[in-house]
Amino acid sequence: MAKGDKINFSTPSGFPEFLPSEKRLELYLLDIIRRVFESYGFTPIETPAVERLEVLQAKGNQGDNIIYGIDPILPPNRQAERDKSGETGSESRALKFDQTVPLAAYIARHLNELIFPFARYQMDVVFRGERAKDGRFRQFRQCDIDVVARRELSLLYDAQMPAIITEIFEAINIGDFLIRINNRKVLTGFFKSVGIAENQIKSCIGIVDTLEKIGESKVKQDLEKEGISAEQAQKIIEFVKIDGSVDEVLDKLKHLAQNLPETEQLNLGVTELETVITGVRHLGVAENRFCIDLSIARGLDYYTGTVYETTLLGHEALGSICSGGRYEELVGVFLGEKMPGVGISIGLTRLISRLLKAGILNTLAATPAQVMVVNMQEDLMPTYLKVSQHLRQAGINVITNFDKRPLGKQFQLADKQGIQFCVIIGSEEAAAQKSSLKDLKTGDQVEVLLGNLAEEVKRRLT
Known about the structure:
41% helix; 16 strands
């Protein structure tokens, strides 16, 4: 770059940057999510942001995800050296686009060090090279849990997922939401029973998964483009539109299975779905929090059984706020053995952006400080420092103002940052071991002994 050239320091498109009030909201939500995850025994891990490209592409179709490759930028004197050595495909690297595929590789790498079933959570940043737009990012934080077992994994782990989703979103208090549950075997079994060829089923599932976005007419057109007859397409539409209470949908599925040919897989899917629903009920999830939705398929190829999507009622345009499902063969790609798993993911960055814009969530104060000790006199700074430490030791967050400025300006500074209380100590107060405590929200100001200050602040904070 030539001297004097201007540097474009704007944020790259699709890569979010948080102000303090936004970052504090993210950390607050992460604390809630972490607490719920750990209450169910999930343990934290960390995987690299960068994986081998062949690992990320190991399980075929990854939906619409575009993977960011990593190619080091070397100085000219080393570029020739790199070109000469060459890099094999196994050395090509890329940024992870989700956390499930890297988890499978992680388990393969640490197989003999882990205890199974292995239940982990991870709340890391992932990268997708999709078109950046409102509410869609190229870099965002995902909060994931997965349970992986060797050979067999109880369907009660699938039942736990709606309970965990419910606890998280009730704690965040974002309003009414609905967890929509389905089973890919139900879809696959039904497609087989109406004569859809084995090699067409995956593409049909992918098309059905777009029903909510593109509508019934376009889904029919897309199915027919795949070689599905108009009669079969109509049967598929009618099937995925089956609705009613959970028990009514289960009864309709059982009735269908009795009257269709080749329903072995359909029956298996219905049995699994019923087992999961029974477990969800035993875990105390309210009936109005979940339903069976046969149009839910999840676009990624690795899902094989239970699938979930969560919708915020009244704000359906926000899309799914938590999704996931069961997979049987993902880890086996690396190990050659059956290792079933089930998990869910919250795209937290995307969710925060959408909820803030919709006015469902508000940012927090710019600072975690609850108290400012104002600077009345420079010679009293030792007292201000001692008082500040006393308050911190009592569990109160404190900013000590080191800069001498008019008292009104200090009040304005505290108020602008969302700090509720100011502690005022002049020479007379210091001599009497007292302080004035000003509540910036109410305007009230009271005299408090320094020995009682922490207790009084705590009382007023509650």
